[in-house]
Amino acid sequence: MAVTRDPGAARDPAPAGGAAGAPLSSSSEKVILDEEGVRRALTRIAHEILERHQGTEGLLLVGMRRRGVPLARRLAALIAEFEQVQVPVGELDVTMFRDDLELRGTRTAVHPSSMPNRVTDARIVLVDDVLYTGRTVRAALEAILSYGRPRQVQLAVLVDRGHRELPIRADYVGKNLPTARDEQVEVRLREVDGTDEVVLVREEQANA
Amino acid sequence: MRRKDVLDLDDFSVEELNEVLQTADAMKEVLSRPIKRVPPLRGKTIVNCFYEPSTRTRVSFELAAKNLSADVVNISASGSSVEKGESLVDTTRTLQALGADMVIMRHPHAGAPYLVARQLEASVINAGDGWHAHPSQALLDVYTVRERLGSIAGRKVVIIGDILHSRVARSNIWAFTTLGAEVVLCGPPTLIPPGIEQAVAEVLRCKSGDGVHKEHAAVRVQYDLDKACEDADVLMALRIQKERQTGGLLPSLREYTRLYGLTKERVARAKFGALVMHPGPMNEGIEIMPDVAYGPQSVIEEQVTNGVAVRMALLYLLAGGRSGRL
């Protein structure tokens, strides 16, 4: 069974307000980022994007459905606060470009994407909540190409949990979190789940 | 969607219909992109098996399949072994052996796609069988109304013309009533099946466990078109076949047009903003006047565009079916 061995957890600040809570019947949660942690991470990422791009020229934030979208919107709001410029935000549903559609059995629900007109020559920052195997990002790159030819595509994620299966890496990372394969990283956002937090979910072994 | 085939809409639940419509929303967005291609059906072979002539349906399915990156093969009855006397069952066995993943079939005999679906592991979509069903047409009709009017429940949908011989009418009856609309059938008494109100009510009663809306008498017959148009949200004209006149079912086409032709005056009797629809191809001047067909309330061209999106949705949803069917 997975034994805690990630040094990152030991260095984490104590979760605010006892958020870890009582274990559920067969899994336990550890809070990795609380509301403040999420806010600070996004603020830092927004500044990093502006620094790297030296401004907002040609910048297009593309949120990957589902939770990447509110994250992208929050980054756009932060950028507007810092630079008084409204950067366009697109929404991308990559379901149809996934490489595991066959394995999923009955078709996964697809939703319309919504991308602004100017993708060609844009400097895109893809935004997602968790970077894991990298396959979803690969699907997103292919999806973007059906809209045009961007000048550049970068990747911003709230959590990088390792275990890449493709040569994909993030340009902006909120938190690096080494994980075991049988752990789950759950990102909860106010807009979708009512609260802001990042938790690590571990399956507990059922003891006799 | 957990079914192998789409043969008729009579057994579709509200959830399944909505699943198709919502998927079609995503597909319509794909059609608005510079590159209208997505990969879910890459490596799949789709065979269009049309034993009756068709342009718009066949091309619509072909484009839908290609947009999903499938490979498409077209078979039409003429110029194929069917002319040598090869039976339907033999043809479909051959298709199976050749590795078809999906077969889209149009056939003059009702029930033919059911026979084929039983024989094949591949999914079968009915593109029209005799007078019986044309599910993808009804789905695109419902999609168009939903897109333009926002909702289906509570709407009054008038279908005008030769209901008796119309698979489009039958499939639309199932689609619209399941989603809670009231359907009014209007046409000459010789061309409306007797007892259809009771027959549809009976089927819907059996389905009512699926959450079928029950607020309205599902289907009504009204022989007077002027009355039928009042308060209508949708006016759907069906193509009248000129052969019906020689078959003794119509006294003359001119009389048909006078009583049942969709004119500007009749459209004006409907609700403000009512939609004018037609499955095509149109007999302009007979069942529909040109100024109506090309007027501001006509959504006939949108029906065609939406047809590709809806067919993409069907192909996409069916493609996962087999692995989900345990």
Can you describe this structure in just a few lines?
By secondary structure, chain A is α/β, with parallel strands linked by helices. Chain A has helices at residues 7-11, 35-53, 68-83, 135-145, 190-193; strands spanning 27-33, 59-64, 89-92, 123-131, 152-160, 172-176, 184-188, 197-203.
Largest sheet of chain B: 5 strands, parallel
* Fold-level CATH name of the largest domain in chain B: Rossmann fold
Poorly predicted runs of 5 or more residues of chain A: 1-19
Give the structural class of chain A: alpha/beta
Number of helices of chain B: 14
CATH top level label of the largest domain in chain B: Alpha Beta
Walk me through what this model shows.
The complex is a heterodimer of chains A (208) and B (326). Helices cover 26% and strands 25% of the residues of chain A. With 208 residues, chain A is α/β, with parallel strands linked by helices. Chain A is globular and about 50 Å long. Chain B is of the alpha/beta class and 326 residues long. Chain B has two domains: 14-134 and 304-324, 3-Layer(aba) Sandwich (Rossmann fold), CATH 3.40.50; 135-299, Aspartate/ornithine carbamoyltransferase (Rossmann fold). Chain B is built from 14 helices and nine strands. The longest helix of chain B is centred in the last third of the chain and has 20 residues, at 300-319. The chains are: A alpha/beta (208), B alpha/beta (326). The A-B interface holds A 93, 96-97, 101-115, 142-143, 145-148 and B 1-2, 19, 22-23, 25-30, 33-40, 316-317, 319-321, 323-324.
Question: Which features would summarize this protein structure in a list?
Answer:
heterodimer; A: 208 residues; alpha/beta; Rossmann fold; 5-stranded parallel β-sheet; 3-stranded antiparallel β-sheet; 5 helices; disordered N terminus; B: 326 residues; 2 domains; 4-stranded parallel β-sheet; 14 helices; 9 strands; 43% helix; disordered C terminus
